[in-house]
Amino acid sequence: MNSRASPARLALFWFGIQAVWGALLGISLQARSAQIAGAHALVFYGYLATSGALVAAGVQLLVGPLSDRRRRAGSRRIEFYVVGAALGSAMLIWFYRAQSPWSLLCSYAALQAGLNVAINPYQAAIPDLVERKNAGIASAWMAGLQSAGNAAGAVLATAIADGVVLASVLGALLIATCAATARTVRSWPRRIPPPYAAIRFSRAFALLFLSRASLFAGFYTLLGYLFFYTLAFVTHAREQARIVDGVLILAFTLVGAAGAALGGRPSDRFDRRNVATAGALCAVVALAIFVIGRSIVAAAAAILLGGLGWGVFLVADWAIACRIIPQASAAGGMAFWNLAVIAPQIVAPLAATALVQRLGGGLQTGVTAAFALAALEMLAGICLLRRLPPGLTRE
Q1: Residue 382 maps to which CATH number?
Q2: Domain extent for 216
Q3: Distances (CA, A) of 314 to 182, 248, 260, 261, 293
């Protein structure tokens, strides 16, 4: 095999993509909501996150099957990487320059559309190129660089106050990692694509989807309201809250990378349900610590435990998907699998916003309720995960 054809280099583009999401989903969406909407930031953030996720879902459902057709025609799907990286980089500038609620909503929707042109075809790289027996190690690289990318994005969003400069740095990173991964994909030994097979919505796929959706609903509730947690319980100054939020997310993602490294080999050797469950339970305990502790010390302890567990979960989750989704419809299958990540970006903010509005008790009450809801969402996901057939969660 060519020395450039390695799982580590294959995962580089995921680092660039996740750096953008690390900056946006953990810090910039909330900070820009507070900047644009002022006292209505908590509610406006819910609408902003929801609108972007709806666009992402539509684009993935269109691009996934198209990418599979291109693959059967001999493409390595690289053209989708290039278009997505170029559009995403351009839309970042618009997002950070937006000066009104409407402009911010439109720019975020356009950014989601651009990046999601690349995401589905790129996620199909593991089933396209990597043998199933090595899927755990390849998934570990993807999960590890996902956490590292989230960390890099959080650091950049915390350290760079000028939005245009931040957009330029994130865009350059996106393009550079796209170029590196595209070169790697071209170097990988060409495999004949399998004949067309329709995506089957089996019971196992349904359980995988529902468990993943519920777990990610908890994750996005945690991620989305962490900024407001720091504002309520750590510091009442918006700029200081942005910095503390960035540090906490950085710690979460760095520890998540360590969790991903720990989860790779167990995901190839043992029942992946057990690996995923152990990681997810750590995240549930972390959310309980947030709810009970309500301090910077509790937040730090919860972040470290939750990050470690989430990294382990991501590895096993990805490896299970590569086992269940048919290789012949990899990108199309990943499009539906990704709805389990996109749908929570729609539902989680709406559910938490509805709960916050119903309680009407102010920032502290709202944030506490949102974190308790996140713990319940994750517990439901674990229960569904345990119902997966053991034969489909190990090699």
Answers
A1: 1.20.1250.20
A2: 7-392
A3: 24, 19, 7, 11, 26
